């Protein structure tokens, strides 16, 4: 697959990606290489990745505990301590080998240790391939509040090897698929239609869909790298989705949701709101509800749950002057930013979500 040019780096794919990675390492004269993994990627992905590296530079592996609940400043402190103990300097290179938690946290660690080290993302989950590893957003959660601490800082390279997807459970694949659905909903009706029926999907089809998803996100980021306008559309489904994810993480009586599972719920809710505020046609709302409900298991929310979820909206990063700002849809393929939504409409949206499509 052809590489995708981002603002200051390339997104490269599969075997050719490793060739470009090795060339970069050989020409950049790094003092040492630090590979950040979690316990899953340490076992399932690291041996394969190390077999592709062609370098005599010293390599150190730093392992973190997997899971969104460990995407914290405390975990960063552990990695910073490890880097200091291993005599890391600003001429070192950090390679983040893992899913969205590893690429988000590893990018933030690299961006802040000694005021900045180069880093490369090697995403191993579908979610990280199509979303987290691309676009330069790095960061960690503040308690259960999603991604409140972080910076936008681009990697030197992103290598997407879809072979790593063979190590993923189906639930993780579905989580990543949610971000691909989002890319279609905000930017490409044709892409959304491709994703609407995956019953006959082949490996080649999946590779092409991943490529197109990355291409869509990169085009948005190129036009608005610091999220002043257009890039906000990438948060579609995330205003309520992040609040739902945070709420479920902090309540032991509720099932913890993977990021994509929460975002899928958020997209159904925000599609209903879109039909009421920005004119999303009823037929498109029904299609979105049906496709996402068929893909993701339903979650039951009580009135008290919804009240607390709405309260969490005040922490959303898109808020301005104390007002919650939503991304809504005018139609499939066209997102509208900076929309205010009354709370009563959010309650209605949860009623709609609970109904069978």
What's the order of the H and E elements?
A: EEHEHHEHEHEHEEEHHHHHHHEEH
Determine the mean pLDDT.
Answer: 95
Largest sheet: 7 strands, mixed
Helix content: 40-55%
Q: If strands are numbered along the chain, what order do they take across the biggest sheet?
A: 1-2-9-6-5-3-4
- Highest CATH level, the class of the largest domain: Mainly Alpha
**Could you name the CATH homologous superfamily of the largest domain?**
Dehydroquinate synthase-like - alpha domain
Overall, the morphology is globular
- Strand percentage lies at 15-25%
Question: How many structural domains can be distinguished in the coordinates?
Answer: 2
Question: What's the architecture of the largest domain, going by CATH?
Answer: Up-down Bundle
Structural class: alpha/beta
Question: Total number of β-strand segments?
Answer: 11
CATH topology value of the largest domain: Dehydroquinate synthase-like, alpha domain
Q: Which radius of gyration do the C-alpha atoms yield?
A: 20 Å
Distance between the termini: 38 Å
Residue stretches low in confidence (pLDDT < 50, at least 5 long) are none
Number of helices: 14
